[in-house]
Amino acid sequence: MKIGLVSDTHGYLDPQLPVLLDGVDSILHAGDVDSQVVLDDLGRIADVRAVRGNVDPDELNLPPLLKVRFGNVQIEVLHQLPVSQEDLKNWDDASALEKLNPERRDRFLESFDPATKVVVFGHSHNPCLVTVGHRLFFNPGSCGKKRFTLPRCFGLLEVFPRGIQGAITGLEGQDKPLPASVWLPVGEYGDVKAKES
Known about the structure:
Elements: E1 2-6, H1 17-20, E2 26-29, H2 36-43, E3 47-50, E4 65-70, E5 73-78, H3 85-92, H4 94-97, H5 102-110, E6 116-120, E7 128-132, E8 135-139, E9 153-160, E10 163-170, E11 182-185, E12 195-196
Parallel strand pairs: 1-2, 2-3, 5-6, 6-8
Antiparallel strand pairs: 1-9, 4-5, 7-8, 9-10, 10-11, 11-12
């Protein structure tokens, strides 16, 4: 099963996305949609579900959080995490964790449903793909119009019986590299550290 992940479109659907997302089973939008037209256009590609971002109007009637299940994998989607992406990256680094606050990390992880294997989020426009506590944290970045110096990109999540493969794809030439793809074992394999490829 293949799931397209987008975020921070801000009322703009990149014309490349219908081709690049062709064949996905579902699309998850992590907020700052800003337009019903974007949701309608994504809905022509595949079933789309979205959460409310900080700029989304009430008329879109989007929930702040979604929990969805694809096969044996539960995914939580929200717009903004209560911690920074830098914290996530540091918590993913076992050598750095001892110098950090592991209790804060544990409290953060406990804020999610224990069944959740993937957390999809947005807001920062900065793509992120890391594992913390045997859970994949996935910010597909912004696929709206270029803002700041951040890359324009989207994500793909493939769900297999034995694991999850996450990858980020750029929509234009990138000044800096995008996060590496990640494989996260699930089920009886879920206690194994995720591998980057």
